[in-house]
Every structure is written in structure tokens, then in C-alpha cells.
From TrEMBL:
Name this protein carries in UniProt: Sulfate exporter family transporter
Organism for this UniProt entry: Oerskovia douganii
Subcellular location: Cell membrane
Annotated membrane topology: Multi-pass membrane protein
Disordered as annotated region, ranges: 1-33
Membrane-spanning segments: 40-57, 145-163, 175-196, 216-239, 322-342, 348-368, 380-402
Keyword Nucleotide-binding: no
Annotated keywords: Cell membrane, Membrane, Transmembrane, Transmembrane helix
Compositionally biased residues, Low complexity: 8-19
Amino acid sequence: MTPTNDLATPTPGATATPDQPAPSGGPAPARSSAPWIRRAAPGLALCAVATAVAYLLAQVIPLSPLVLSLLVGAVVGSLLGSLRRAGGASGAVGQGTARARWAGSLTSRTQEGTSWTAKRVLRAGVVLLGLQLSLPEVLALGWRGLAVVGITVAVTFSATLALGRALRVPRVTSLLVATGFSICGAAAISAMQGVVGGGDDERTRRENDDAVATALALVTIFGSLAIFVLPWLAGLLGLDDDRAGLWIGASVQEVAQVVTAGGAISAAALATATVSKLARVVLLAPIVAGAGVVKARRERVARPADVGVAAGAPAARRTPPVPLFVVGFLVAVLVRSTGLLPASVVEVTTTVTTLLFTAAMFAMGLGVDAAHLVRTGRRALVLGTASAAVVTGVSLVAVLLLA
């Protein structure tokens, strides 16, 4: 996923210069012969600063640093995009034009590093996420607990996709919402974006970036509500600590939200909630790999191999059925499951994973089209509401029947 976003879109009709990208649909400016690290350094530095700001804000604001980082990126991208558009629309030489030129220059200088972060750093975070999962801990839930988790994930994922089609929500948005609600919130959305994100044209890439922002907003809203609602409902229903913890772990989106909700009941509920949440995260690999297989199959149908050969054109790059970062995720899970990693190493990698995801979220946030998101967000909100109801209701029924 290498987003070409509003931050990277110059004023329509502008001429490409060394400091400003070519207009959408025009020829790309010649790439500098400078070493890659020199070209990428401004964008990498911008992502690093944004990551630090989001991580520090998360210590005082009850929001995931991933979500905060995306918000910061969306604000920065929207601001610079509006400056460029205002300068181009005015057509006058003056302060507006100077601001537009400055925005275009900043965009051009940072695009190499932010694009690399949105793709490579994101995938590194997914791989390291596997080090947080231990199969023996997950298997300790027993077949009943695992059945609750498996049923909840399968029904929520498939039902959300079906509801998305019925509501005519864009396919990528439905897929990201389904992944976020059924698996593990922002981290799962990021991993799925690594497979289905990007696109062959600027409009597609921008719509996919909007889909990420929409999905993250929805899992944040409904996961935050679950922190208060589920412990109250568990008491109202008379669930014991193990059942309450299993319900929370099988239905709440973010790990931090699970910890907060489970801890509000008891230490025993927290322990069960955390382990059942880890069991959901394990299912991230097959779901993302499955999406990769489907995308690769669609590309084969849309772009038959003999077409490019007959035309003498270079073969189109195809999506591998199972992305390498998913394989890396599985390897990391196996390494953690051996029990050979010291607890201190696991703790450090957990922090590093959060930082990597936070940086990637900022880079993707730069591509969010806020105006488009507001115009098209109502159907997605209905989809998120329905998905939250499905994951909460299905997991409760499964707990009552099986646990």
C-alpha cells in the first residue's frame, strides 16, 4: 500500500517542479538521484514526530495512539490540501499562492518517507504483533472458549460483509469494518489494509484511505461504548467472572478496551478476557490471507496473463495469495509459543509494535479526504452499528450456550 493522497495531490493544473508533484494523471516528476535515505528523511522525520505526539497524547487521552495518530495525519493532510486548493482557486499572486507553494513543497519533500512508512512500517508492525501471541495460552481456554471465539469471529465477519453489500457500502470499507469488529480493531484494520489497500489510480487510493479512517472511527466509537455497557450488562445478566470475561474478550474491539472493560469487573474476568482476545488475534492470519487469495483471484480474472503478453506490455504486478508479512506474523507466533523469549523482550516488542502501527496510521491519515468522508459516512455508521450489535449478541449467545 503506497497511498497517493490529498497531501500528495498538487493544485489542479499546476506544473510539476522539483518541489511539487505532477498533477493527477500527468507525468510524474523525475526522481532525484540522491540516495534513498536522503529523499525519505523528511517524511520519516515527520512520521516520527507525529508518532511521538500521538503516543504521548494517548497517555492522557483515553484513546488508542493508533487512532490519535490517524486523526493527526488527517488534520495535517486536510489542512495542506485546502491550502493548495485555495491557492489554485484564487489565481492571484499573493499570500494564498505563497501558502499553496509552501504546501506543495512540503508535500513533495515528505512523500517518499510517508509512503514508505505507510507500507513497510505497517507490515513490520503486523509481523511483530505475532510476538504478543502464545498458542499454549490461547489453548488454555479449552474447546468451549475457543468455540465461542471462533463462532463470534466467523458470524461477525460474514454478517458484516453481507450487511455492507445490502447497504451498498464500498467493498473495501465493508471488509475493513468486518475485520476490525471481528478481530482486533485498529491492528486488524491495518493488517487488512496492507492487502487490499492502494490501487491503480489516485481516486481508488484515496477512497481506500477514507475506508481506513471510517473503520477506525467506528471501532473506536463502539469499543469505547462497550467499556461501560458490557460490564453493566454482565452484572445485570448475572454472569460469573469467567463468562463475563469471555464475553468481553470475544466481542470488544481493541485490546486496550478489553483490558479496561475486563478490569472493571475483576482480576479473574480480566485474565479470561485477555486470553480470549488473544485467541481472536490469532485468527487475523487466516482472514487476511483469505482476503489476499480472493484479491489475487480477482486480479487474474480482470487481467488475463495473455493480454499483456499479446500487447507486448510488461506483466502487471499481482498480489501474492499469502502476503509475506502474514507468513512473518505466523512465524512470530510460533517463536513466542516456544516460551524461549524472555518477558522483557516481549514487553519491548509490544511497545515497538504500537509505535510502528502509530507511525503507519499517521502516514495513512495523510491520505484521508475529510470532505468525502463526511459525505459518505452515514451508511458506514449504520454498518458499524449493525456489526457492533452482531458481535455483541452472537458472542453473548455463544457464551450462554457453550461456556
